[in-house]
Amino acid sequence: MNETIKTIHSMRSIRNFSGKEIPSSELKAVLNAAVCSANASARQSYSIIVIKDREILDGALFYGANKALVFCVDYNRIMDTAKHLNHSIESGNILRFITGSTDTILAAQTAAIAAKSLGIDSLFTNSLHRANLTEVYKLLKLPDQFCFPLITLCLGYPTTEPSIKKGRLRNSGIIHYARYQRLTTEELNKIVNEYDDEKNHLGIIPPDKWSEMGFDHYLDWFYTKWPGLAANKSKVEEIRIILKKVGFVPSA
């Protein structure tokens, strides 16, 4: 493997950050890398909010990271520039939101890889969506039209090194050649067994936990007990209302 692929394979999520400071030159390098990511029609339909305030970082939204980058789907710069030149551009539709989301996620992932190449660990989180979104808009002073905070990248250095590196599925059901292929019963059983095998570290709890609760397989626990699967209807509705308010979802 070359150094870039080694960097990607070495990435892991960190939830406990130390107080070690990220040098400003390295933070700038991460940001400069992020904006080099691919984007539709050379628009870069996103904004990156850099969070440095220690009081904010120590709150529940940012896991005590040393720095945090909030990546927003954002058309305000594009629309303001058009207006400045006496033009207009229509940005309030779901297609623009999907396109902007793609631009935003590409920039965020590029930032994470760049950070890791500098020895800076990270955590991607949608914690802002779990908070009161109206308060999030106030906290970050986000525009109330055509802007939505999509994902946060927490950056810093771990207090301790993680004992394991989480695994990933890599074969059938993930990678399809030539055409989409639904899984056979044999392939489905293989995936179930991959999750059950402790050495793969695919699950979010170890086998002794789900087996103690009487489950035959990790995925039995996951599909029935993992609270993330039970959609919070009030939160889903809140996000729908916000997307409608800022102009990305039609009223009707």
Written description of the protein model:
The longest helix has 24 residues, at 94-117. The chain is an alpha+beta fold. Helices cover 42% and strands 12% of the residues. Helix 2 (24-34) packs across helix 5 (94-117). The chain is built from eleven helices and four strands, in the order H-H-E-H-E-H-H-E-H-H-E-H-H-H-H. The termini are far apart. The chain has two domains: 3-162, NADH Oxidase, CATH 3.40.109.10; 180-252, no CATH class. It has a four-stranded antiparallel sheet. The model has no long low-confidence stretch (mean pLDDT 94).
How would you summarize this macromolecular structure in one to three sentences?
The protein is α+β, with helices and mostly antiparallel strands. Helices cover about 40% and strands about 10% of the residues.
Number of domains: 2
The number of helices is: 11
Shape: globular
The overall pLDDT average reads: 94
Query: What is the CATH C level class of the largest domain, in words?
Result: Alpha Beta
Strand order of the largest sheet: 1-2-4-3
Q: Which architecture name of the largest domain does CATH use?
A: 3-Layer(aba) Sandwich
Q: What is the CA–CA distance across the termini?
A: 51 Å
CATH superfamily of the largest domain: NADH Oxidase
| Rg measurement, Å | 21 Å
Strand content: 5-15%
Helix content: 40-55%
Structural class: alpha+beta
